[in-house]
Amino acid sequence: MSTMAVPDVAVAAVDEGFWTRNRKVGLVLLLLGLLSAVLFGALATDQQARFTLSEDAAGTALEINGTFGAILFGVIALAAGAALLTVVPKRWFLLVLGVGLVAFVLSFLCWQVSAAPAGQNFMPLVNIIRGTFILALPLIFGALAGVLCERSGVVNVAIEGQLLMGAFSGALFGSISGNVWVGLVAAAVGGAFISLLLAVFSIRYLVDQTVMGIVLNLLAVGVTGFLYERLMQTNAERYNSAPRFSNWEIPLLKDIPVLGPALFRSNIFLYLGLLLVLVIHIGLFRTRWGLRTRSVGEHPTAADTLGVRVLRLRYRNVLLAGVVAGIGGASYTLALYSFTKNMIGGKGFIALAALIFGRWNPTGALLAALFFGFADQLATYLGAINSVIPSQFLAMLPYLATILAVAGLVGRVRAPAADGKPYVKG
Amino acid sequence: MEPGEIHALLGENGAGKSTLMNVLYGLYQPDEGEILVDGEPLKLRGPSDAISAGIGMVHQHFMLVPVFTVTENIMLGAEQIRGGISGFLDRRRARREVVEVSERYGLRVDPDAVIEDLPVGIQQRVEIVKALTRDVDLLILDEPTAVLTPQETEELLTVMRSLKAAGKSIVFITHKLGEVKAIADRITVIRRGKTVGTASPEASRDELAALMVGRNVRLTVEKATAKPGKPVLEIAGLVVDDDRQIRAVDGIDLTVHAGEVLGVAGVQGNGQTELIEAIMGLRPTLAGSVTLDGESIDGWTTKRVLRAGVGYVPEDRSVDGLVKEFSVAENLVLDIYDRPPFAGGLALKPEAIATSAKQRIEQFDVRTSSADMPVGTLSGGNQQKVIVARELSRPLKLFIAAQPTRGVDVGSIEFIHSQVIHERDIGTAVLVVSSELDEVLGLADRVAVMYRGRIIGIVSPDTPREEIGLLMAGITPEAAAEQAGGDATSTEPPGNEDEA
Q1: Is residue A211 a contact partner of residue A205, using CB atoms and an 8 Å limit?
Q2: Which residues pair with B347 in a beta bridge?
Q3: Is residue B317 part of a domain?
Q4: Element (DSSP H or E) covering residue B261
Q5: Predicted ipTM of the assembly
Q6: Which residues of B touch A11 (CB under 8 A)?
Q7: pLDDT greater than 90 at residue B72
Q8: Which of A47-61, B50-64, B73-87, B190-204 has the lowest mean pLDDT?
Q9: Is A417 in contact with B67 (Cβ distance < 8 A)?
Q10: Local structure of residue A230 (DSSP, 8 states)
Q11: Do the bridges between strand B454-459 and strand B446-451 make them parallel or antiparallel, or are there none, so unpaired?
């Protein structure tokens, strides 16, 4: 985490005068709070907005009067914004910003839930949280693949292709063998295959890494699409009916209210994803491999003069990234759906955004992925309750958030210094 | 090399000193020949072989990861690992080792500081500690004083002496004669990839210089007294930020007159680059004004500044000065390619460009087989001459030359210097920025010393080097007098003060 502190310092040195970044963000939050208190408050109805702690309308629920809730949370957001504008010390910035944004979302939800058609004035939290994680899962794997690659200095635009190839080979070999584990290994190999091409062309032949990534994505779409039509469509029984991982309940954890049923009665991919975040975080910042990886991503010449084998480490990390992304692809075909053409549908690129949003940090990437997943899930939910807000607009939200994030909401974003630069001796 | 010896490797830029040492450090592979250590031939496949053979190197461009801490940088490649199979870093043990080694040799560094926050002098110290923790017997220092102030250089020499006392051998690569004479036990001079002689430190500066360049050279620039005219460039209260939005130029007032050379001296990175870029319209100014011949040029585009009669030799010729893939002829008209006689209507006029190129190649002694050669294939000195030829072929009011002879052979240096002086003598105002103090002192009629974005003093080039050195370190004569006074009362016997 020590590397995280540096950009903050740099940003602090930049902004002098009254309109610091914190104050600008505070002003935006203040306006959002004002908007939600007035507009959402006015549009909300006097129905109770119920947030149930289960999967449906039944059971215990947190209830609040719609109008009152919308105004209350709006005022909280407004107060957080005002606080950022005036008194809040720098180290509390993220906390206060978080409180403000959550209050804004809650105000919005109070309006939406209370204004839903009669009988639907409830939001099942278990479903929402579960859906958030399911939608975020490919993003988590994809962003981790990005972290592994880019921390060692190779830009990974090929996440989309790696996910797709993983999903495809997982489905294919899972179906042929009838064994989920074989499918999982095949998915990892499939992702690694795309990675291998990326590694060879960008490390050995110094091809521009971004261009190479895009080409590989197109290649993956083409190859899987072709084989899908030739094999899977003609004989789905044989080639596209992979067995699926069943849900595993985790003792003790499954009994936690809300989180238990939402997260800990899930399939292996969710557990694996969360575990990988932890492992890669510790690996990057606590181990020899991590120190060397980061040094190669920042200043490969320095690493080379100290006997670190730059190219070998890059090959290894890029391949590892392919394995991770391949497994991420399998989280579709070995748990949820049959393979369909181009089924990743751009999630690889959102994973790339999550990587940047999360500042090339595993935990940051996790949080960013969850944010995108939540926005996605919210869009689905609002569609289901016939919200006045067009679902297309909500589906757009994650991308809008990414633009804001990359534009500086999370502070100066600084990529590894040697990211995308091939290393040539001498 | 013998144990406990400081061996200076002397040679001008591009003579092959660094290449030789990179081979010795295993970074490059030799085409022929072998390296003997204690009589045994040594085969180096990479730097790790060199390290295990007891060879350490401090590179000219530091090999430190800017976002890592001192300890992380030092442990990299030779990590302390906690017992067992884990591969987990043992930061505490590594930190202890850093502290221990730095104390043993009197090289104080903060093990937890982040490299990019440290001044270059300290970064260099980290590099030395890094080599020492690897138990080297032979330490190679590649141009270690290039980025240091005279005071930091003095400290470095002290460190080198204490390392020598501890039995370490040192190879000291440099092209600065004074330092060699001050510290070396033995001197090897290299020219064009060959050893041309060895000398003892008692040899005179002129002898060494002659060995270095192969013939007797003038160490000074010959020039008549300047006849300054009216002010041409006037800068008042200029404030400029660098790329990281950190203040680089912090309120500068400066005037350059027609017919004089104003030299800007200073350790690199004290705002010289940003100052020049601001004048040229390459970098936005935050406050202050720049006037050229009485006319404000604030907010002008670079093209307009150039057209107004400003010649500009940028400090990094390969990035800003030339288009390497373009031919010599094309590079010679980069500034006025769109004007007659080189262009008419929408088309370029290749004949006019070729004729003019031919003339200027001759006039400026550019050594190239043809005007159609890509400029990137020329030697550094000839590339620089192409730039100078281009910029001096327009009628100028102001000529700005940043690091005009960096990485240039001695013959070209002489030629370029004489061109600069010639330009002065025909009445152009000249602004020269160089991190080579000798160059500034040789060319300038007045010397402005820059320190942390400010002009800390304007002195005559006849000022003693020591005084200018102090200015480069941010110490004004008043402050120095105060300090010397303080020292005198405590340590020095009275009477020594008069000499200072």
Answers
A1: no
A2: B344
A3: no
A4: strand B261-265
A5: 0.82
A6: none
A7: yes
A8: B190-204
A9: yes
A10: I
A11: antiparallel
Interface test with B, best of A306, A312, A423 (most B CBs within 10 A): A306
- Tokens matching residue B174: 């440099």
* Chain B contact set for A305 (CB, 8 A): 25, 27, 47, 57, 59, 63
- Say how far apart CA B30 and CA B419 lie, in whole Å: 40
B383 domain residue, yes or no: no
Domain count of the fold of chain B: 1
Q: What count of other Cβ atoms lies within 10 Å of the Cβ of residue B265? A: 28
CA nearest B380: which of B455, B311, B317, B288? B317
Q: Pairing relation of β-strands B231-241 and B285-292?
A: antiparallel
Distance CA B366, CA B357 (A): 10
Tell me the percentage of chain A whose pLDDT exceeds 90: 56
Residue of B51, B67, B88 with shortest CB distance to A298:
B67
* A89 reaches B (C-beta below 8 A): no
Select from B176, B171, B197 the least CA-distant residue to B35: B171
The span from the CA of B352 to the CA of B114, in Å, is 56
> Do the Cβ atoms of A209 and A158 come closer than 8 Å?
no
Does residue A209 contact residue A146 with C-beta atoms inside 8 Å? Answer: no
Number of C-beta neighbours around residue B1 at 10 A: 14
> Range of B194's domain?
6-213
| Distance between CA atoms of residues B454 and B456, nearest Å | 6
Tell me how long chain B is: 500
Give the position of tokens 């017919």. B259
Tokens 């540096």 belong to A6
* Domain assignment present for B402: no
Give residue for tokens 């027609």: B258
Evaluate whether A305 touches B57 at the Cβ level (below 8 Å): yes
Place of tokens 């980069």: B334
Rounded Cα–Cα distance for residues A6 and A4 (Å): 5
Residue of A nearest to B72 (CA): A291
Say which residue the tokens 């090399």 belong to: B1
* Chain A residues 289-328 within an 8 A CB cutoff of chain B: 289, 291-292, 294-295, 298-299, 301-309
Going by C-alpha positions, the residue among B103, B137, B172 that lies closest to residue B4 is: B137
Q: Do B120 and B151 contact (CB within 8 A), yes or no?
A: no
- Is A424 within 8 Å of chain B by CB? no
CA triple B173-B179-B183, angle to 5 deg: 90
Mean pLDDT of B236-257: 89
Quick one: pLDDT band at residue A164, thresholds 50, 70, 90?
Answer: very high
Cα angle B244, B247, B250; round to 5: 160
Q: How confident is the model at residue B467 (pLDDT cuts 50, 70, 90)?
A: confident
Q: Is A139 exposed, middle or buried (0-12, 13-18, 19+ CB in 10 A)?
A: buried
Residue pLDDT, tens place only, B384-442: 999 999 999 989 999 999 999 887 877 788 889 999 999 999 999 999 998 778 888 88
- Tell me, what DSSP letter sits at residue A203? I
Give residue ranges of B with CB < 8 Å to any A CB: 22, 25, 27-28, 46-48, 51, 57, 59, 62-69, 72-73, 75-79, 81, 86-89, 114, 116, 130, 244-246
A292 to chain B, closest Cα gap in Å: 7
DSSP designation for A182: H
Tokens of B399: 């000529």
Rounded CA gap, A365 and A140, in Å? 7
Give the pLDDT confidence of A186-237 residue by residue, as tens digits. Answer: 999 999 999 999 999 999 999 999 999 999 999 999 999 999 999 999 998 8
Residue B384 counted as domain residue:
no
Domains and CATH numbers, chain A: 2-115 (no CATH), 126-409 (1.10.3470)
Q: What CATH number is given to the structural domain containing B16?
A: 3.40.50.300
Q: Please choose, from the candidates B173, B153, B141, the residue with its C-alpha nearest in 3D space to the C-alpha of residue B15.
A: B173
